[in-house]
Specification:
Blueprint lengths: L1 H17 L5 H10 E6 L4 E9 L2 E4 L1 H4 E6 L2 E6 L4 E3 L5 E3 L1 E2 L9 H4 L3 E4 L11 E2 L10 E6 L8 E10 L5 E5 L10 E4 L3 E9 L1 H18 L11 H15 L4 E6 L1 H9 L5
Parallel strand pairs: 10-15
Antiparallel strand pairs: 1-2, 1-6, 2-3, 3-9, 4-5, 6-7, 8-9, 11-12, 11-14, 12-13, 13-16, 14-15, 15-16
Helix pairs in contact: 5-6
Length: 268
């Protein structure tokens, strides 16, 4: 009986552990739908994914510069947005989800819909999930182009938390600048969210430190053995802020994008 119970426990553990394993087809679809998004004028680089034959979803901050001054929002959508596919095809794209007073969602929820006029043959189109509940430790995958990598990379991870309003999905996986706009995909191959942020504490701390250096710089600086300590510190902060990953990332719930698509009757 003891050995039988042990065997039964092992079988149950294996079954439970294997329920959310990402299969190869989901991985391939994640990668085949993924594109790199760049703007030379905006000095911006990020990720996106196909939601229709000629439509790509990404983050608003990837394709626009924004400012919030005294609660007045100013933004500039880049006019040289380019899409680079997995196979190296390069096509131009335009944003069709421009924030307005009636529909500010793209800005506040950080999503954008891009339209291309050229047909891309080799691609996968991802379905948007309608899930309203999430299980902690459920496995996920996202593909993208984090800054500094020579090619597309795909990361497996798990859901580690969800905000009370389901707006933000926290994930346990390395998330870097450049991953923004990538599709957070579940084990069924459906999009749960759009990668939007990484762990904010370190980045915020670095930015606060940078602000203090900029203030000190107004009083002048000194050169020690041919090195300006303030400039050296600023360069170090820039590199850390650009490439550091704490293993925690955040995705905006795909429901924000889905609601916008329904509201504006965008055909997928």
């Amino acid at each position: 009986m003891k050995y039988f119970l042990t065997l039964l426990a092992l079988i149950m553990f294996k079954t439970t552990f294997s329920q959310n394993i990402i299969n190869s087809q989901v991985v391939n679809d994640s990668r085949d739908s993924c594109v790199k998004i760049i703007s030379e004028k905006g000095q911006s680089s990020g990720t996106g994914f196909f939601i229709a034959d000629n439509l790509i979803a990404t983050c608003f901050h990837v394709i626009a510069s924004t400012q919030n001054i005294n609660n007045n929002i100013n933004f500039n959508i880049f006019d040289d947005i380019q899409i680079i596919t997995k196979n190296g095809e390069i096509v131009s794209a335009t944003c069709i989800s421009i924030p307005s007073n009636d529909s500010p969602e793209p800005y506040y929820q950080d999503f954008a819909i891009l339209k291309i006029n050229t047909s891309i043959k080799s691609k996968s189109i991802l379905s948007l999930s309608t899930r309203i509940t999430y299980n902690i430790t459920d496995q996920i995958i996202f593909s993208g182009y984090p800054l500094g990598t020579p090619t597309m990379v795909s990361h497996l991870g798990s859901i580690s938390g969800v905000t009370n309003d389901n707006s933000i999905i926290c994930i346990q996986a390395s998330t870097n600048k450049g991953n923004s706009g990538g599709a957070l995909v579940d084990d069924k191959g459906q999009v749960l969210g759009i990668i939007s942020l990484r762990e904010g504490g370190i980045s915020l701390g670095l930015q606060n430190y940078l602000s203090k250096i900029n203030e000190s710089e107004k009083e002048g600086s000194i050169i020690l053995m041919g090195i300006d300590p303030l400039q050296a510190s600023k360069e170090t902060i820039t590199v850390l802020d650009k490439y550091i990953s704490t293993g925690i990332g955040y995705a905006r719930n795909i429901s924000h994008l889905s609601d916008y698509i329904k509201k504006h009757k965008i055909k997928l």
